[in-house]
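Suppose you are handed only these lines of text.
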Amino acid sequence: MIVLITGASSGFGAAMARKFVAGGHRVIAAARRTEKLAGLQQELGAALLPLTMDVTDKTSITQGLAGLPAAWQPIDVLINNAGLALGTEPAQQTSLADWETMIATNVTGLVTLTHLLLPSMVARNSGMIINIGSVAGSTAYPGGNVYGATKAFVGQFTKNLRADFAGTGIRVTNIAPGLCGGSEFSQVRLHGDEAAAAKIYEGTQPLTSEDIAETAYWVATLPAHVNINIIEMMPTCQGFGSLNIKRNTPA
Ligand code: NDP
Ligand code: 8X3
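From them, the structure of the protein bound to 2-hydroxyethylsulfonic acid can be written out as follows.
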């Protein structure tokens, strides 16, 4: 299989690249940081093709796809993994720029890549799209505002794609993890505050990027008639919160 993974320079994406290459597949590893992708290529060899791409920039996506060598087309599996959260503040204290970046990356980038790669999958009546959602897409929490909403979009978009693909050989899955450590996610979310990011995982055994890679690999290697719609996964240390009530506040 040829697998295009966005956000492959770090975390889940890099782990998925390792997993698919180890399984004998070829991986197009896309992200903005060229030097990180070069390191991954050094590690994994010719089965990995680095692709510098900013998913918030439509031209970067179209040029990146158009520039792929013929031997790296057509793409069998698209893993829409590139994404980020920015901030944990309540909505009324956030920056609009952060909201726009999350929407541009987690929603518009994912939708654009899906739309551009679908015609080739339709022509072959075969292909798979794995979207990386989040528990934040189904569970509300303070500070989740636009991040959670982008992941809710990912969840519903995945289901609607399934509705459209019914009767075709194209498959689509939403993998929605909870607390996952060892990636750059929390550093990015907390704008580079490494100490605060580390605190989030203190005393926990979170999911790892390898756990997510294992899951994506399983989904992608099931028999062609099997579609996994959604996988929501958490570490055993995590559960659901309750609705919160603030007392003695103005109406
Ligand atoms: P990382 O921050 O480690 O990885 C994010 C990846 O996305 C990086 O490779 C980054 O590469 C890439 N990326 C960000 N913006 C862009 C862009 N504009 N264009 C191209 N690539 C981009 O985080 P994770 O591996 O943890 O996160 C991966 C996905 O999993 C995200 O969608 C995240 O929302 C989701 N998720 C994470 C959870 C967690 O707890 N860690 C839990 C649930 C979901 P570069 O900077 O080089 O462009
Ligand atoms: C990341 C998981 O719970 O930090 O998507 O929002 S959470």
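What can we learn from it? The beta strands are 2-6, 26-31, 48-52, 77-80, 127-132, 170-177, 230-233. Residues 134-136, 178-179 surround 2-hydroxyethylsulfonic acid (ligand 2) (CB under 6 Å).
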